Every structure is written in structure tokens, then in C-alpha cells.
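Work Package 4 report. The design task specified in the project plan requires that, given a folded chain encoded as C-alpha cells, an amino acid be chosen for each position. We show below one input record used in the internal validation round.
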């Protein structure tokens, strides 16, 4: 729903000529800026926690978040905002990263919480959630994709750089959807903790994947995928 032609009421005609003023009107709806989306997977966390509030970052996870924050700051970009999942591990990762990016506003959302986006193809034996979970989580994660991953608004004049701190399942699904790949293939990708995935959305709606799950800035002994 970002294609300029879809935003124009084609029934409205020029009163004098009876012809649609498409050329002049399309200019008001065309995006001018490029959006850079940085999808960050949360750092390593306590897998033994029964409730979300108990699944806090491990000491290594905190180190990973520091390394990710330092890496993002070193890029020298003017980040517009950090949108993060409301789950504890994503919130804590965000707090650490944000220390390296002073002044960048933080926004929490339930849409980016971890879940089961769509039944994977081929299926895997080690992870089989109940079918109802795909319906509940899938609709929410698809809503997150539609809400956050789109071309820039026509009013946006300059390129933007946004950070999203969330979860592996969410990021993998978003990447498949953004690149117009079959979303059922999301589980074929693997993402390290604290990794950076960089999507670029051009004004014409074309999407490019610059990096997927990058942790080249971390020492090998700090890399995990739990």
C-alpha cells in the first residue's frame, strides 16, 4: 500500500479536459528518501528462566550487546530511533546498545515479540509448536512486517537509519517477506546473538539485503546462537 498509483483516487478528473492529472499528482505521493533498517537479534540470555522477566541477559550476553552497540556507533550514522521488542532480553539488549547511541529515542512494542511466524518448510523435528501458535504469532509478526518494513513516506526528505532490536524468528521472517522469498523458508537461516542484519528500502520500493546476521565485529569466543 505504498505504491504511489495506489494512493490516488483515479475517479477524480480534471474538470476542463476530463483527463486524469496523473503526472502532477503522482509527484505528491512518490517517496524521495531511502530507509536503512538495522535488525538486531538480542544477546545471549538465561534459558532456564520460566517467565519472561527471568530470561535476563547472561554476563556474556551483556558483553555481546556492548560489542553490538560499539559497532553501530562506529558506523557514524545518524540513527533516528530504536524500536525494540517488549520482551526482557530485547529490552536489556536495547538499554546497553543505547548507551553507545546517546539521544536516540527508544520505542517498545509487543508486535516484535518472539513467536512462531509460519510453519517452516521443510519441517524440523526439534521445534514443533502447537498449530494455534502459528495463527496467533503469525498474524502479529506479519502485522509487524507491514507496519515497519515499507518504503519511506513521501514527506520524508532525507535518508533514515533505524534500529530494530528483536528476535531470530521475527528477523528471519521479515527478511524473507522483504525480499519476496517464500516465507516458509525462514528457518533455513541462522542468526547469532547480537548480530546485525541490514535491509535497504529504496524510494521505488526495491529492497536490498546488505548484511545478514553479521557478527564479524565480535571475537570468535564471544559468538553464540542460543
Amino acid at each position: 500500500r505504498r505504491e504511489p498509483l495506489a494512493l490516488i483516487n483515479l475517479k477524480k478528473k480534471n474538470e476542463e479536459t476530463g483527463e486524469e492529472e496523473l503526472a502532477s499528482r503522482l509527484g505528491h505521493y512518490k517517496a524521495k528518501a531511502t530507509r536503512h533498517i538495522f535488525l538486531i537479534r538480542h544477546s545471549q540470555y538465561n534459558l532456564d528462566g520460566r517467565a519472561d522477566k527471568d530470561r535476563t541477559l547472561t554476563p556474556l550476553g551483556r558483553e555481546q550487546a556492548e560489542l553490538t552497540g560499539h559497532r553501530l556507533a562506529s558506523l557514524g550514522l545518524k540513527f533516528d530511533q530504536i524500536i525494540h521488542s517488549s520482551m526482557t532480553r530485547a529490552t536489556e539488549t536495547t538499554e546497553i546498545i543505547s548507551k553507545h547511541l546517546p539521544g536516540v529515542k527508544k520505542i517498545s512494542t509487543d508486535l516484535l515479540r518472539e513467536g512462531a511466524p509460519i510453519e517452516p518448510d521443510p519441517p524440523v523435528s526439534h521445534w514443533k509448536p502447537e498449530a494455534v501458535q502459528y495463527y496467533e504469532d503469525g498474524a502479529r509478526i506479519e502485522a509487524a512486517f507491514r507496519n515497519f518494513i515499507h518504503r519511506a513516506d513521501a514527506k520524508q526528505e532525507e535518508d533514515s537509519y533505524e534500529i530494530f532490536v528483536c528476535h531470530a524468528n521475527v528477523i528471519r521472517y521479515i527478511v524473507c517477506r522483504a525480499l519476496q522469498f517464500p516465507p516458509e523458508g525462514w528457518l533455513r537461516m541462522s542468526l547469532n546473538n547480537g548480530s546485525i542484519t541490514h535491509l535497504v528500502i529504496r524510494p521505488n520500493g526495491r529492497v536490498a539485503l546488505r548484511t545478514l546476521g553479521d557478527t564479524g565485529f565480535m571475537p570468535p569466543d564471544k559468538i553464540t546462537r542460543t
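The beta strands are 35-41, 81-85, 105-109, 160-166, 196-201, 207-214. Validation will be extended to a larger panel in the next phase.
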